Amino acid sequence: MAEFIDLVLLAMLALTALRVIFLKDLFAVVMLFGIYSFLSALIFVNLDAVDVAFTEASVGAGISTVLMLVTLALTGRTEKENKRSTVLPLLVVTVTGAALIYGTLDMPPFGDPNNPIHEHVAPRYIEESPKEVGLPNMVTSVLASYRGFDTLGETVVVFSAAIGVLALLGVRRREEIGGADVGFQAHHVLRVVAKILIPLILLFALYVQFHGDFGPGGGFQAGVIAAAAFILYALVFGLPQSFKVVGPKFLQFMSAFGVLLYASVGLYSMSKGGQFLDYNKLAVDPVAGQHYGIIIIELGVGITVFAVMLSIFYAFGSQVERSNNQ
User: Residue limits of the MrpA C-terminal/MbhE domain (predicted)?
Assistant: First the structure.
């Protein structure tokens, strides 16, 4: 049954991708990309990779869709007619696809328990993680403890993305984008529903943040969900009003603070005589030290992801507001 579901979802992915190729309406393309991300999340759920599905649904089908819609407000809805020959791009795509398919021919059978990936480090993580880290969610143990240095690098990459977007676009001040903007003032039902949903979304973000030790979740997912709540607020009540709640300068500070908070855990463990990000040195009991370290670094990840996602939305949204007021 699981393989049948995978085949159905893969077929739906292929049909969605083919439809995107032939569409000229960019708004429809963005919607289909959101559906594509949602289908990908369903495939990850079917593969028991719930944490990855959580990230794909929140980032791919959620924030990315909103950012692309904001981009359409700057670029236009209809794709311009391409008068150049499509033979060369088609040839490049065909050759690349053939190379990728050829590279998969010598892969081990899907789901075989004797595959190298299941015989390398996985047994050690499964056997020793409950004793060394003590967390029920083994994914969190691997990402936040065993691969803590890699996760720090991923957090720095997210922070670098914000630097790149802000360097290119910047964030317009409230005075430049029109301080009188009030969002969907005439849509009373939408505003009332948003006031009800936003606190619930923030509460769910906190749950995902601090429940990642025991179930799917963590800093990356929680940061995106919290940013989605404030993006909803900005869309409904207007960007200038959102600036009053969470300002761009504060977000820039928070995006850097999250990375520094993560790195400070490693520096503190080194000051206690351990290695960088050696959580065992954070408490007398090594398992308790693992818990403290993971909670702190996940909080740093959540803060950075939240600030970066909202900053990128502010950068694009302020450009749209400014162009609309000119």
Answer: 115-170
Tokens of 16: 């969605």
Supply 324's token pair.
């609309």
Q: Sign of the CA dihedral 224, 225, 229, 235? A: positive
Report yes or no: 220 and 306 within 8 Å, Cβ to Cβ: no
- For residue 17, give the amino acid letter: A
Residue 24's contacts (CB-CB under 8 Å, 6 or more residues apart) are 78, 79
Q: How many of the other CB atoms lie within 10 Å of CB of 223?
A: 31
Phi, psi of 136 (to 5 degrees): -65, -35
d(CA 58, CA 236): 19
Dist CA 190 CA 196 (whole Å): 10
In the beta sheet, which residues pair with residue 25? Answer: 78
Determine the average pLDDT of the residues in 107-133.
82
Q: DSSP secondary-structure letter at 59?
A: I
pLDDT of residue 251: 92
Dmax over CA atoms of the chain, in Å, equals: 69
The region that residue 218 occupies, defined by phi over 0 for left and psi between -120 and 50 for alpha, beta otherwise, is left
Closest CA to 314 of 222, 176, 185: 176
Reported as a single tens digit per residue, the pLDDT across 217-235 is 888 989 999 999 999 898 8
CA nearest 155: which of 309, 281, 315, 317?
A: 309
pLDDT at 48: 82
Confirm if 262 and 299 have CB atoms less than 8 A apart: no
Query: What is residue 321's DSSP assignment?
Result: H
Domain range annotation of the chain: 140-326
* 8 Å CB contact between 58 and 224: yes
Q: d(Cα 233, Cα 198) in Å, to the nearest integer?
A: 7
